[in-house]
Amino acid sequence: MRTMNALLIFLAFALLAPSLSAQAAHDAALVRGSAELTPAAAFASAQDAAAAYMRQIWRERGERIAREVRPAWMPLVVCERTVERFLSAQDARAQFAVVDREDRVREHEFGSSYQTTLWVAENDGAAARGERKLRASISELRMHAIAFLGGTAAWWAALMFLVGWFDRLSRGYMTARLVVIASALGLLVPSLAFLL
What we know:
Blueprint (H helix, E strand, L loop, with lengths): L1 H26 L1 E4 L6 H31 L6 H14 L6 E12 L4 E11 L1 H46 L5 H21 L1
């Protein structure tokens, strides 16, 4: 009985394995490198093209996640900066796996040229981790924005208090100057804090 079960399991895997590899090949994207003079340079060119392809996929995914996660009051430009920072920190080569590879050799008058074509599939585990990390970064950005807005409101309230206090000390002599200085500080300090 055990032998029969083992045989059935083996047959199931033998029949299922080609369909799994066909599905992986179906999900893979074709990426072709440029023609180079050595096989190593051709493979490196194909890997660079695959990394660029993955960066483009992540850029589109990041924009979609930013539109989904960001609150309505936050400008999209602020979220796009966070997405760009996230993308620059990502290792694009760790985001894909090579499913298949084809090397092509062409003969020319000057010698041989080589071109590599890769079929790459996204690494599902890395994609899920990256999405979670990006969503967390945008949520963290939202908390920073709320803290920034609260700090700006407190800064303006402190400036208004100081203007009122100094105006009372000067008995109205410096009101216009105090309002100009407070307005400049009220705009300058939050702007610098936002840019940093």
